[in-house]
Amino acid sequence: MRMELRVCKHCYNGEHGNPQKTAITKDMVECARRIREYKDLIGIDSLYVSMVEEGDNGGAEALSVYVASIEHNQIQMNDTQLVMEDGDGNVLVYPDPDDILEVLTRNIDQIQDQTRQDVTVELSSESAELLS
What is the domain range of residue 68? Predict the structure, then answer.
């Protein structure tokens, strides 16, 4: 299985002035990086974390699947998404932050079951609320 988390670089850096989105974005990245450290334990071949900036073509490093929507008669590329591809070539795309966090935290739970090390990620109150 291959995975790629794409997030808005400006949200991650707190440049949009939305502290809630910044906290959630940082949590997603931290979870993905933790999973990447232990990916072999749960059968993940690769996990990329891409920071997307305005004007990028979606920021794909490994999996060229993009989610878009139409706002005010214009196509808007989704700057935050989790893309997963299994060994059979089936692709799943999660564009919603709550779904992304759910998938990532479940992977961390699976890793925790496979090791004696503490691999938990301390989530922000914003992410914890989103998951509840």
Answer: 2-127
